[in-house]
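New to this. Please check this protein:
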Amino acid sequence: MTVRADATRRPDRKSARPTKSAKGKTAAKRGPVFRLSESPSHLLRRAEQFAAEIFLKADIPDGVTLRQSVLLAAIAEADGASQSDLVSATGVDRSTLAEMMARMEQKGFIVRAAAEDDGRAKSVSLTAEGRRRLEGALPAMREVDKALLAALPATRRSAFKATLLALAGAADAMHAESAEAPKPTKRAAKAKTAKKARSKR
């Protein structure tokens, strides 16, 4: 029996293998893998989602949101606080906080008046209705805290709270630094824009 020569030929191994340069290009394209499971910022967001879901499952009268309850608690803790004080206490940005307070004032949860020591600032206090709404939300807020700590071994709970306090302190320091930094004038901003445009040419 005669076997055809072309049927027994083996493929050229050199042509089948990728070249070193091709391998290098493939590796360069992939780069280092970013693992969400090891990202502190992502894990913090997951923890925040966990807390929000627990709050939503609680039977809260009148449908007060978690963020609203946080703001109500901050005002109750420091009656007569200014908007700047509440920004620091809650971590909610200034524009969002202003919108929240405007809506809560319309609903009769809070009252705002000129501060005694600064007529330009507004001091914020809870109304009777605002206190009632806060009292209704407190059980859910305590349940969230309880569930977060229960997810950790007892020996790690104090360290967990200390870590959160340290992160909150770092956020406060960053906000204070940005507030104290002098704002650039219009002329300086234009010069900076022109410099960027020249560097791109």
